[in-house]
User: Which sequence fits this backbone?
C-alpha cells in the first residue's frame, strides 16, 4: 500500500477506489487534507466524446494542484520517502536510494490521478479496451511519468536541492524486463497513446521475474544471465493481494446433470494482480497495466514431506506455479519447455478474462445482460500468444455463465480482435494438439467444434463441384492441421478403391471416361447409388465406410498422417474467432490480405484492416532529448507537435536557416558528449565527439543510427 508523506500530501486527500472489481487506482493513506469548497468540473467522456458535468469533490481538483507543487515541497516529499520507505538502511546514501525515494514521490501523485480515472470510468460505465500481450517493452518510468505530469523542472530542482542530479538519479532505474522487441514496444506505445487520448483501456501481461536475459560482454564474448530488475523491488507497482483468480491445467471434462460441461481435477494455481500506472501526457487520465504473478496457497506446501527430508517434493507445487512467470519465452526445444510456454499463454488469457468479466458484472449490477458484453468490452490480442482468449471466453460463457453455444460464439466473435505481426507462414504459431489436449482438454473440445463449423461454412461457400478447390480452401483455413476431418465433411471425400487394375466409380467424370456412351438416366442412377454408398450418418466416423464396404475408402486428404504432427494453427483461430484482423503497416496489411490469409480475406473481407505502428514523441523526443525538443518548440512556435506530429512540418520553412542549423548542431554535439562520457565510464575507452557514431538498436529489427 502506497503511503504519501505529509509535506506533499497536504494539498489533497486520497480518493476512494473505484467500484469495479479489483480497482485501477490505489489508496494513499496516512494523511488528511483540509476540507475545501466544492466546485463544478468538466471531464471529457471518452465513450461519447461529450462533456459530462457534475459536482466535483476535492480530489477532482488535482490537475491544478499537481502543477502548482513547487520544488521545495517535492524535495520534502522525496526526503520523507528516503527516511521512511523501508528499502534502505538509514545510514545508506546513494543515487539508487535517491531514485527509489523520487519514484515513490512521483507515485504519490500518480495515485490521485489513478483513482480519479477509474472512479470516472466506473461512473459512466464506458466501453473499455483490454490489450493482451505477452510483452510490454515499457522502458524506464521516472522521466516518462514526471514528463507526462509536467513536473520535470520541479523534480530536477528538488533533486538539486538534495544534492543530486535528475539524469544521474533516473539512470539508476533498471529497464522492466517485460518485453523484448517490436511487439512489446508496440504494446507499450499503445498504452501511452490511449492514456494521452483519454481512452478507457487496460493492458494485461505477465510479471516476468527474470525477463528474457541480460547481456554481458566480457573478454570471452557475450554471456546471457537472468535479469535482476526486481531484486531491489519495483516502486511503480502495487500488489493486489485481494485480486487473484484460479487457473487450471490438466484434469478431465465431464458432463453434469445440468447439461453443462465441467472441467475437473488437474493442477490448480493462483494468478495474483500487480498494477502499474500508465499516465497520459497533459491529462489526468492514468490507465492501468495489470501484470500477473503465479503461485499456490500456502497449504500446498507439503510440510510432511519437508520434515521427512524430501524438500524438493515439499516445494514442488510452489515451484511449478511460480516458474510460469520466471522467464519471457522460455526455451521450448523440450516438451517441458513447450508445456511451460502454453501454461504462460493460458494463464494470461484465463486470469485476464476472469478479471474483465468480473468488472463487467460489477459495473452492470442488477441490469446484467450478456448481450451487452461486446458493447462494453473490447479484447485486443497482440499477436497469437493470447489466442486462447477465444476458447476460454467460450468456456466461461457456456460452462460457468450458462449461455448456449450460439450465444457464446456471437459474444466472443464481437468482442475479440487480432493484431498480426508476421507474414512468414513458418513463423505463425502452431501448438501440438497432443500437448494442448493433455493440458487444456476442455479448450480442445471447443476448438474442435469451431473447426468443424468453419469447415461446414467453407463447404457452403465453395460447394463440391470443384473438389480440388475445396481441398485447397480446407487445407489453407482449417484450425486443426493433420487431424481427421469430421464425418460431416469427410463423407465428401470418399472414393472407390482400385480393383483388378481398374477404377470402379469415383465421379461422373471418371464414369464418362469408363463408358463414353452412358445415358444421362444411367449416370443419374449410378451417382445416386454411389452417393448412397458414400453417405454416412453425421454421428459416425467416415472411415467406417471402409469397414462396411471394402470397395470404398477415404481420400488420404481426409485422414490423419501418423508421420506428421497434429497441430493447432493459432493464427487461423484468431482470424475465425475475432471480428477484426489488422497488420501494423500498410504494406504488411496488404500482404496479410493478399497472401498470408487470402482465403480468409475472400470469405470475410470486412474483417481486415490496417493500423500503422507509430512511436510516442513524448518518450522518444520530448523526454529523451529535451535540448532538441526545446529547439523544435522554439522554431515551430509551440509544443503542440508533442501531441500532433503533423506540426513538425512547420520546420520545413526553416530548413536553410543558419541559426536553426547552428542550434541543431550544438544540441547534437552536446548529446554526443554524453555518449562519449558513457563509453568512457562503461569501457574505459575515450572516443572523439567529432567521430561518426554508429549505434545499433534492436526493436524487433536492427536499426543503425548515425550521429
Assistant:
Amino acid at each position: 500500500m502506497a503511503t504519501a508523506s505529509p509535506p506533499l500530501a497536504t494539498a489533497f486527500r486520497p480518493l476512494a477506489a473505484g467500484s469495479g472489481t479489483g480497482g485501477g487506482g490505489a489508496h494513499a493513506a496516512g494523511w488528511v487534507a483540509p476540507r475545501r469548497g466544492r466546485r463544478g468540473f468538466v471531464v471529457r467522456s471518452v465513450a461519447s466524446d461529450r462533456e459530462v458535468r457534475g459536482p466535483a469533490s476535492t480530489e477532482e481538483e488535482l490537475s491544478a494542484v499537481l502543477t502548482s507543487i513547487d520544488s521545495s515541497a517535492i524535495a520534502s516529499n522525496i526526503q520523507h520517502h528516503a527516511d521512511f520507505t523501508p528499502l534502505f538502511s538509514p545510514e545508506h546514501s546513494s543515487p539508487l536510494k535517491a531514485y527509489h525515494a523520487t519514484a515513490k514521490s512521483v507515485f504519490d501523485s500518480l495515485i490521485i490521478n489513478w483513482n480519479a480515472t477509474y472512479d470516472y470510468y466506473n461512473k459512466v460505465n464506458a466501453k473499455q479496451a483490454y490489450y493482451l500481450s505477452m510483452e510490454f517493452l515499457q522502458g524506464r518510468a521516472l522521466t516518462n511519468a514526471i514528463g507526462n505530469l509536467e513536473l520535470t523542472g520541479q523534480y530536477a530542482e528538488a533533486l538539486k536541492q538534495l544534492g543530486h542530479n535528475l539524469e544521474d538519479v533516473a539512470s539508476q532505474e533498471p529497464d522492466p524486463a517485460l518485453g523484448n522487441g517490436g511487439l512489446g514496444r508496440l504494446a507499450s506505445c499503445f498504452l501511452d497513446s490511449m492514456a494521452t487520448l483519454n481512452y478507457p483501456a487496460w493492458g494485461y501481461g505477465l510479471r516476468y521475474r527474470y525477463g528474457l536475459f541480460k547481456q554481458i560482454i566480457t573478454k570471452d564474448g557475450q554471456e546471457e544471465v537472468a535479469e535482476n530488475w526486481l531484486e531491489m523491488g519495483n516502486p511503480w507497482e502495487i500488489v493486489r493481494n485481494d485480486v487473484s483468480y484460479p487457473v487450471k491445467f490438466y484434469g478431465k471434462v465431464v458432463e453434469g446433470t445440468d447439461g453443462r460441461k465441467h472441467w475437473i481435477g488437474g493442477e490448480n494455481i493462483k494468478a495474483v494482480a500487480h498494477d502499474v500506472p500508465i499516465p497520459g501526457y497533459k491529462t489526468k487520465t492514468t490507465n492501468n497495466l495489470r501484470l500477473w504473478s503465479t503461485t499456490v496457497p500456502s497449504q500446498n506446501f507439503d510440510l510432511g514431506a519437508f520434515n521427512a527430508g524430501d524438500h524438493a517434493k515439499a516445494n514442488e507445487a510452489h515451484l511449478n506455479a511460480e516458474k510460469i512467470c520466471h522467464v519471457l519465452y522460455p526455451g521450448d526445444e523440450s516438451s517441458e519447455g513447450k508445456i511451460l510456454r502454453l501454461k504462460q499463454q493460458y494463464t494470461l488469457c484465463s486470469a485476464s478474462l476472469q478479471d474483465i468479466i468480473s468488472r463487467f458484472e460489477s459495473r452492470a449490477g442488477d441490469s446484467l445482460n450478456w448481450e451487452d458484453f461486446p458493447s462494453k468490452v473490447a479484447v485486443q490480442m497482440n499477436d497469437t500468444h493470447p489466442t486462447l482468449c477465444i476458447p476460454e471466453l467460450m468456456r466461461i460463457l457456456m460452462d460457468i455463465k450458462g449461455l448456449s453455444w450460439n450465444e457464446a460464439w456471437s459474444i466472443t466473435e464481437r468482442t475479440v480482435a487480432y493484431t498480426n505481426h508476421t507474414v512468414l507462414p513458418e513463423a505463425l504459431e502452431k501448438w501440438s494438439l497432443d500437448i494442448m489436449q493433455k493440458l487444456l482438454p476442455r479448450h480442445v473440445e471447443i476448438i474442435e467444434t469451431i473447426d468443424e463449423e468453419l469447415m461446414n461454412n467453407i463447404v457452403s461457400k465453395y460447394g463440391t463441384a470443384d473438389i480440388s478447390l475445396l481441398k485447397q480452401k480446407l487445407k489453407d483455413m482449417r484450425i486443426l492441421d493433420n487431424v481427421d476431418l469430421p464425418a460431416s465433411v469427410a463423407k465428401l471425400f470418399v472414393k472407390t478403391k482400385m480393383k483388378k487394375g481398374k477404377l470402379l466409380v469415383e465421379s461422373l467424370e471418371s464414369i464418362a471416361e469408363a463408358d463414353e456412351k452412358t445415358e444421362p438416366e444411367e449416370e443419374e442412377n449410378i451417382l445416386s447409388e454411389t452417393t448412397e454408398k458414400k453417405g454416412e450418418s453425421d454421428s459416425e466416423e467416415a472411415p467406417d465406410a471402409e469397414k462396411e464396404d471394402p470397395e470404398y475408402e477415404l481420400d488420404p486428404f481426409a485422414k490423419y498422417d501418423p508421420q506428421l504432427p497434429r497441430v493447432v494453427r493459432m493464427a487461423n483461430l484468431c482470424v475465425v474467432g475475432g471480428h477484426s484482423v489488422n497488420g501494423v503497416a500498410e504494406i504488411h496489411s496488404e500482404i496479410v490480405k493478399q497472401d498470408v490469409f487470402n482465403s480468409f480475406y475472400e470469405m470475410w473481407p470486412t474483417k481486415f484492416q490496417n493500423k500503422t505502428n507509430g512511436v510516442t514523441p513524448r518518450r522518444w523526443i520530448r523526454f529523451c532529448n529535451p535540448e532538441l525538443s526545446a529547439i523544435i518548440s522554439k522554431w515551430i512556435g509551440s509544443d503542440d507537435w508533442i501531441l500532433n506530429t503533423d506540426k513538425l512540418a512547420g520546420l520545413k520553412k526553416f530548413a536553410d536557416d543558419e541559426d536553426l542549423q547552428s542550434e541543431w548542431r550544438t544540441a547534437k554535439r552536446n548529446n554526443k558528449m554524453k555518449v562519449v562520457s558513457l563509453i568512457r565510464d562503461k569501457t574505459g575507452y575515450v572516443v572523439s565527439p567529432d567521430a561518426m557514431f554508429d549505434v545499433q538498436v534492436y526493436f524487433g529489427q536492427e536499426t543503425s543510427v548515425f550521429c
Remarks:
- Residues 139 and 175 are 5 Å apart (CA to CA).
- The two ends are 45 Å apart (CA to CA).
